[in-house]
Design goal:
- A hairpin with a 2-residue loop joins β2 (45-48) and β3 (51-55).
- It is built from 1 helix and 16 strands.
- The strands form 5 sheets. A 4-stranded antiparallel sheet has the order 3-2-5-6, with no helix packed on it. A 4-stranded antiparallel sheet has the order 10-9-12-14, with no helix packed on it. The chain has a 3-stranded mixed sheet with strand order 4-1-7, with no helix packed on it.
- The protein is rod-shaped.
- The protein is mostly beta strands.
- The longest helix is centred in the first third of the chain and has 19 residues, at 2-20.
- Helix content is 9%, strand content 43%.
Length: 218
């Protein structure tokens, strides 16, 4: 009798252990990555503990399935594609139960572009056919009306300078000589105007008194 009781109690204990070792629940969260605000970024990798667990689609989204107890936290990092800056800090996810599975928690991550497109519209009044210079290089030339458009790809949060080269012989009477303008690149693509008016200085003539070399009249 004692042996049967012990055997029954042993089976019951095993059953309780089996019931208590249920797999942890699965939580789903959505990671959304954008380049500029409102612009989804594709092919951004999501890493957990150094391992890739997701990659964003054409909508900039990926779904993560995380297992753990409610209240448990995970820290994931986003590796942005080439040409975009990855976040310096990881994003923390806290597992929470939700009543409607279709409304999964969403986490937004920014991957701003590493360069910005800036267009400079050059308008040189009375300055036709002038070279536009950037960092010592001639990158454009104004047309017969004095207009030119310059496109540059530059890192944000820095300044750059353009100048108009008037060193040619045909332009030595233009004033001012070699004017320049400085612009600031911001955290977005931008358009600038380089508006410069030129005036022509009047040439100076030097008159020389002729010396009479003939005979002096009586």
């Amino acid at each position: 009798m004692n042996r049967l009781l012990k055997a029954f109690l042993g089976v019951g204990a095993l059953s309780l252990v089996g019931c208590s070792s249920k797999p942890p629940p699965r939580f789903e969260v959505v990671v959304k990555v954008q380049g500029d605000p409102g612009e989804p970024l594709v092919n951004a990798k999501v890493l957990l503990q150094g391992k890739q667990v997701g990659k964003t689609d054409e909508k900039g989204r990926t779904v993560l399935g995380l297992k753990g107890a409610e209240g448990q936290t995970y820290a994931f990092t986003v590796q942005c594609p080439e040409g975009y800056k990855s976040p310096a800090k990881p994003t923390t996810v806290t597992l929470r139960r939700i009543e409607e599975p279709s409304k999964r928690p969403e986490y937004m991550v920014d991957c701003p572009p590493t360069t910005r497109s800036v267009v400079v519209a050059v308008r040189a009044d009375n300055g036709p056919n002038l070279p536009v210079v950037y960092l010592g290089e001639k990158i454009a030339r104004t047309d017969d009306s004095g207009a030119a458009d310059v496109l540059l790809k530059l890192p944000p949060n820095q300044s750059f300078k353009l100048s108009l080269d008037t060193s040619g012989d045909d332009n030595k009477h233009l004033r001012p000589q070699n004017p320049s303008a400085t612009f600031d690149v911001k955290e977005k693509d931008d358009i600038f105007v380089f508006d410069q008016e030129f005036k022509r200085a009047r040439p100076h003539y030097h008159w020389h008194r002729r010396h009479h070399t003939g005979p002096t009249p009586l």
